[in-house]
């Protein structure tokens, strides 16, 4: 069984591109629910331990929505027009309640998108029993949340929207500011590559799981879902780059939601390539010193100047400066000038990235 998209070779507009702050927010929640699958995002998982305890409990209670798959009701618009988070969240709130409830139920009961049976499925006691049993695997809070979804979908949808808003305000709005330019560059890079080489070399590089068959003008995933769609005319597939989806690929081909394929951003492909051993060795040498490790510890606490650090590590300012310059050259620290002083800060995730490079080097 498989999902296959058939491309009309004469229709270059069959593939569209876009990004979505709401979708990326929900994908990052999947990462928090299943961190073992997302080695590249362990830094984010650790950082989110600082979220308020009530918010962390709510993320866990509703994790059945995004632990195994993603609800299609958080997908972006099919035309690739990019909305901000507030607009996308308002669109989720504006969905007919039975439409939203039917889609939010799907992670607990795969109804296959049977839209014509929507009301019957939502009212089916056997569906209810199976959904609650699945939610119970995540704990009693999840079971109670699933019961609320079935009994009072209007309140449950507002509960989900409140969770998304609180998580966005507490953490992901700042993260989106960081990754939005990366996703925009990934889309621009896709356009350049398709213009130069055609769609199939580009598609082949999106994910190892994506099966690309240029001779048959088709591509797709081998998954337990049998569906073939012809792209062209008004039927377009929206390709959405993501920083958080790796190592997965997410695809939707069921109406009434847009045809979407969420794939790793091109920058992640570069980051997964093994580092040059000489460069890795240089960076390791930079941190392989007790004094420099102490400096990293102090700067991780807050940005500091050479003059402040020198007495804390029992060095002259000249000696401290040499160590700091070595750490900056290795990409561990960054600098900014504040009047007379040069202030050093820890590069975000620099040490996690270094650990990841070591892991990549030893994986064969």
Describe the structure.
The protein has two domains: 3-271, no CATH class; 277-362, Arc Repressor Mutant, subunit A (Orthogonal Bundle). The two termini are 30 Å apart. The chain contains 16 helices and eleven strands. It has 364 residues and is an alpha/beta fold. The strands form three sheets. Strands 3-4-1-5 form a four-stranded mixed sheet. Strands 2-6-8-7 form a four-stranded mixed sheet. The chain has a three-stranded antiparallel sheet with strand order 9-11-10. The protein has helices spanning 21-33, 42-47, 53-61, 85-94, 97-105, 118-123, 125-136, 140-151, 153-197, 199-204, 266-271, 277-287, 290-301, 306-312, 317-329, 350-362; strands spanning 3-7, 15-17, 210-213, 218-221, 227-231, 237-242, 250-252, 260-264, 304-305, 333-338, 341-346.
Shape label: globular
- How many domains make up the coordinates? 2
Strand order of the largest sheet: 3-4-1-5
Q: Distance between the terminal alpha carbons, to the nearest Å? A: 30 Å
Helix content: 40-55%
Number of helices: 16
Task: Please indicate the percent range of residues in DSSP E strands (runs of 2 or more).
Answer: 5-15%
What is the mean predicted local confidence, pLDDT?
88
Low-confidence stretches: none
Strand pairing plus helix content: what structural class?
alpha/beta
Give the ordered list of helices and strands. Answer: EEHHHHHHHHHHEEEEEEHHHEHHEEH
- Rg, rounded, reads 24 Å
> How many beta strands in the DSSP annotation?
11
Major beta-sheet overview: 4 strands, mixed
